[in-house]
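It is worth pausing here to work through a concrete case rather than discussing structure prediction in the abstract. The textbook approach is simple: state the sequence, then state the predicted structure, then interpret. We follow exactly that order.
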Amino acid sequence: MNGATVGDSHTPQIRIRSLDRNAVDFVLSNTQLSVANSLRRAMIAEVPTMAIDLVQFIENTTVLADEFLAHRLGLVPLVSHNVDQFKYTRDCTCTEYCKDCSVEFTLHVKCTEPGTRIVYSSELISSNKDVVPVTEGDDQGVALLKLRKGQEINLHCVAKKGVAKEHAKWSPCAAVGFEYDPHNNLRHLNYWYEKSIKDEWPLSKNAEEETENDPDAPFNYKAEPTTFYFNVETVGSLEPQAVVVKATRVLQEKLGALQLALEEDQNPDTTANMDDAEPWV
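Step two, the predicted structure:
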């Protein structure tokens, strides 16, 4: 996948520089800053995943408060490759939660041996084999809490589908690196420095992709950025390429809804005639 390019010279292009299990580094070109920033925001906040949303404590004799543990459980990344098969709770017909809109987890651990017993997220038992805590290899996942002899934790969790606009726990991204114009040719940045800008503000690796303008050349006030550098790192709930694709689909759906709304606004008579038409028999 390294160096792969998608698109032609007249449309936005994506060139993948590197891709692994949890990160993708790509260059988006032939587009505007507003489009690139919209993609960045969509990847962070509008790609749905599964996350624990409800926690019922049956027994907790640890030193940690219920609220503290509930918050830690909510931030545990869950494998969400099949998130599209679930409904949002607000769209489901059930009264509270069901298998169509949620996944249940249980955790029951008691320390019976001397010393400290660490409880990991991999010990959460899921009702759906496709939605489980994220782990890698022999890794046991996130350390949730520590137990001493005689202490016990017994709880029931419900994971639901959501987006990070509601809460950050649903974000599939750990970080999204975003840069354009690495040489500051457009002068969008005003660096603070003591002696030398180049010594105190070293260039990123993206500077190798572009050339620096001649400082003595006339400045082009109409110049706009057209190339943008992304480095998307995920938490493991979704593959990095899936995050990019899903974010693009979110933008397409929003633009489609906007287009329909504008068409209805431009043709109010057509909408009115449809509302006044005779009902189907």
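Step three, interpretation. The CA atoms of residues 159 and 216 lie 59 Å apart. The helical segments are 33-45, 66-74, 197-200, 240-266, 268-276.
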